[in-house]
Design a protein that fits this description.
There is one protein chain. The protein has one domain. Helix content is 53%, strand content 0%. α2 crosses α8. With 148 residues, the chain is mostly helical.
């Protein structure tokens, strides 16, 4: 009987660990978080493309609009390629560098909420690099889990 109880406990622990380590996905985790925290400035009314924003940054900033990131392909552009690390540099809490990203504050209304939401982004991205495309190695790029 004791072995059965231990066996049952081991199985329950294995299933709870598997459920706890659920993969962070764009559709289930990132898109709803993005829609709640970021879409008002980075949605369909934003400077639709990177180049449009860069060409007239003052105009878009005065309107409270950033670069468009409300679709998977737009968001991946700032994560993995072409503008590798841009999302990470802007959302980073600065604990490793001393320089907090300019968008970190928008991840939540409390530090705990910001940290929880940052963790979701970090889990989704994988290799949380602050490096730019020209500075990243192939091995570091391979550590980024988002598909590009």
């Amino acid at each position: 009987m004791k072995k059965i109880v231990l066996y049952a406990a081991a199985i329950a622990l294995a299933f709870s660990s598997a459920a706890y380590s659920e993969e962070t996905t764009y559709r289930k985790h990132i898109k709803p978080l993005f829609d709640a925290k970021c879409v008002s400035c980075h949605g369909e009314n934003a400077a639709h493309e990177y180049r449009a924003f860069k060409e007239d940054k003052a105009k878009w900033v005065s309107k409270g609009q950033g670069m468009r990131m409300d679709t998977y392909s737009h968001l991946v552009f700032y994560t993995a390629w072409l503008d590798t690390g841009a999302l990470m540099r802007r959302l980073d809490d600065g604990k490793g560098t001393g320089k907090q990203g300019n968008m970190y504050q928008y991840l939540g209304s409390t530090e705990d909420e910001r940290q929880q939401n940052l963790k979701l982004f970090k889990d989704w991205v994988g290799n949380w690099t602050l490096k730019k495309w020209k500075d990243i190695t192939k091995e570091e790029m391979d550590g980024i889990k988002v598909k590009y």
